[in-house]
Amino acid sequence: MTRLGDLERAVMDVLWDVVPGTSDGVTVREVADALDGRELAYTTVMTVLDRLAGKGMVQREREGRAWRYRPAASREAHIAQLMLDALDLGGSRDAALVRFARSVTGTEAEVLRAALETEAGSGSTGGDQGEAATELTDRVDGPTGRRPAGEAAER
């Protein structure tokens, strides 16, 4: 997955914050308006959205003469992919994972434990951890247990 430049990140932040998963998306004008204070030309925003579409970061659909844009995946899915890509940079994945695990806070470690238990199918740990795993799954995958459209389940 490609890292995003500052302007691409700002545009993606607008899409992630403004466009709900069930939305038909937003137009270039709506994105430009949401980037108030940046004083960007309409064509600049249009070019950035076109490049993001080319990178697979956004989906677009024609509406009359305009395009409507929405994120191809959630912010969380993008960040997770960046983390996986970082693990592929070389060296030992195991060593990098251990160092990462040692650097997280207690709360973050609990979230990771709950996610790992859920993925392993052992969500029946009982008590608070089982409930935490269910809450985490609902928060990440939605209450139906299905990942939002555009998010791959494989790593």
Low-pLDDT runs of 5+ residues are 123-127, 140-155
Return the structural class. mainly alpha
- The radius of gyration computed from the alpha-carbon positions, rounded to a whole number of angstroms, is 19 Å
SSE ordering: HHHEEHHHH
Strand order of the largest sheet: 1-2
Strand coverage percent: 5-15%
What is the count of β-strands? 2
With helices defined by DSSP (H or I, 4 residues minimum), what is the helix count?
7
- Main sheet properties: 2 strands, antiparallel
Helix content: 55-70%
Quick structural gist:
This protein has 155 residues and is mostly helical.
Account of the protein in words:
The protein is mainly α and 155 residues long. It is built from seven helices and two strands, in the order H-H-H-E-E-H-H-H-H. Strand 1 (58-63) and strand 2 (66-71) form a beta hairpin. The longest helix has 15 residues, at 127-141. The protein starts with 5 loop residues before the first helix and ends in a 14-residue tail after the last helix.
Key terms:
disordered C terminus, elongated, mainly alpha, single chain, 7 helices, two-stranded antiparallel ribbon, 2 strands, 155 residues
